[in-house]
Amino acid sequence: MKPKVLVTREVFDETLDYVGQHGDVEGNQGDVPFDPETLARRLADKDGVICCLTDRIDATLLERCPRLRVAANIAVGYNNIDLAACTARGVMATNTPGVLDDSTADLAWALMLGAARRLTELERRVRAGEWTGWRLKQWLGVDVHHATLGIFGMGRIGQTIARRAAGFEMKVLYHNRTRVASDLEKRLNATYVTKDELLRQSDFVVLQVPYSPETHHLIGAAELKQMKSSAVLINSTRGGVVDDAALVAALKNGVIRGAGLDVFENEPKLNPAFLMLDNVVLAPHVGSSTEATRRAMAMTAAKNLVAALAGGTPPNLLNPEARKR
Prior knowledge:
The chain is α/β, with parallel strands linked by helices.
């Protein structure tokens, strides 16, 4: 008998076809998000699940899913999965690192350039008919080239962002939980600094840390006050890393110049005050959202799931201890 698999959100046809070759698949191509009760009911008799950041996989859910052996997340981040609870029940959890690094880095740069040159604000003004002619001091932005870029989190995506900085001849600073190898620092032309030094020196601060209790509100009112008044904050990692209420106040009061945001606390219910501000570029959590990348992410999750259900070790296993159980 084939293992039973639930795919919680709409995926590409080739993903369903691949999983269908190895299991009995229940899909959700209507793409209506499952509430916790529906997810638990649908998963009760399943051996595996391909899930997304909108699905909470925790102890409460797992108690109702005794057959579940693998939760394959279509994302590199996995703060929607309680790894400890999965490990305790022998449920392997996987993610999709690597395949989305370039696309996510590109989006961070799009936010940076858009915020620096006020592109979304100026597009609104053009569409509203407010542009009546050229003036020397009209709608001035700030330069990205030769500026100082500060990166919080020098993992795969942080490194990809740093490599792109060379084309803009930027000075690159970074802060990480652990300092990266010296040869990598040389290749990236990046200098390790403390958190406080990064905030004080950077013209652009880019966040690329995973969300966890330790990184909750990594950037709050105190950190924003340490930044240059001309600085721009970019959050393209996870909501909750920034205290959004504090950021709104900082943008309103000129504590920092601007921001570019792809993620928010309590998304998609973002703080409505952001919508009233001209000095913030807003995007709807689309860091990895190119067709090629999203196809690769879905297929990576599918291969992780199939490997686990076949009794092997998934390529991107997050909790090896679970396999022993």
